[in-house]
Amino acid sequence: MLILKSFILGFSVSAPVGPIGLLCIQRVLSQGATAGFLTGLGAATANIIYASIAAFGFTVVSAFMLEQQVYLKIIGMVFLVYLGMKTYRKKPPQESSSIKGENPFQMFASTLLLMITNPVTILNFAAMFAGLGFSEESSSLRMAVTLILGVFMGAVTWWLVLSIGVNLFKKNITPHLPLVNKAAGILIILLAFLSLA
Length: 197
Known about the structure:
By secondary structure, this protein is mainly alpha-helical. It contains 10 helices and no strands.
């Protein structure tokens, strides 16, 4: 039962479409479902790192990251603005298989970096885990691993569903890709400033 609850938690935490969701959609449209999934996988990996810190109580790490959160948020905002501008200026590739200078590792790493610059996620996971009845003092190692695994599987499932779903409607949207790129770029930049505020 705990694995199902944590799976739903991981799925629902990933589902709201923010900057990473927009980036995932844009990459699916311009480079295919694999590019979108790798984008989401970077976000899911950051979530599992923060979920692990929350579950295992790495107090030194979490305290340091929370102390540095203003600087980390500024780094994240600058990186988001850069990605937004890059997305806005991106020209649709002539072939859907064209990666246009972005390799799979870069797609994964860019979202991992973006997500890791938001250490408040540790507190969010700690609160959500407490809501599921988990506490660092009274819960077992097995329970912590089950929670983390469930969150990761839920997040990965969401990114898979989003990538495949957008890819199904790709033919209808691709003719409008220049407009999609511009809209996604502007929204990513706006969300960057909103996240800092």
